[in-house]
Amino acid sequence: MFAVVRTGGKQYRVAAGDKIVVEKLAGEAGERITLGDVLLAGDGGELKATDGLTVAAEIVAQAKGEKVIIFKKRRRHNYRRKNGHRQQHTILKILSIGGEEAKPAKKRAAKAAPAEDTAPAA
Questions:
Q1: Which residue in 30, 51, 39, 42 sits closest to 7, CA to CA?
Q2: Any bridge partners for residue 93, and if so which?
């Protein structure tokens, strides 16, 4: 199941188990939050009703983005200004959409090759 949620003025397509980077949200790492502004939800090719639907997420970390350098210059006027900015981000792990939990990834069991006895027959 997937959903399209709006947070921080942007829209994100999420599914259970996804990690997304959004604009800064209040909270510490490890806290659980709910995103209530669900715009669209569906399962495969069919759409589902979004009224009352919420997305549960866990805050993984509060981080800063890459540094953006702002440089202003006016020719022949000895005017130069250099500034920098790092945007605050929150990294979220989507736990469930409308109560539907994330399915754990199936681990492929390595097939053990049958051990061949190489002992000489006596």
A1: 39
A2: 19, 58
Q: Is this structure's pTM higher than 0.85?
A: no
Go through the chain and tell me how many residues it has.
Answer: 122
Cβ–Cβ under 8 Å, residues 21 and 94: no
Segment 87-109, tens digit of pLDDT? 999 999 999 998 666 666 555 55
Residue 117 CA to residue 89 CA, distance in Å, equals: 58
The 10s digit of each residue's pLDDT in 26-70 is 999 999 999 999 999 998 889 988 888 999 999 999 999 999 999
Tokens describing residue 47: 């759409």
CB-count exposure of residue 57 (10 Å: 0-12, 13-18, 19+) = buried
Torsions phi, psi for 111 (to 5 deg): -70, 120
- Collapsed DSSP state (helix, strand, coil) of residue 24: coil
Burial class (CB in 10 A: 0-12, 13-18, 19+), 54: middle
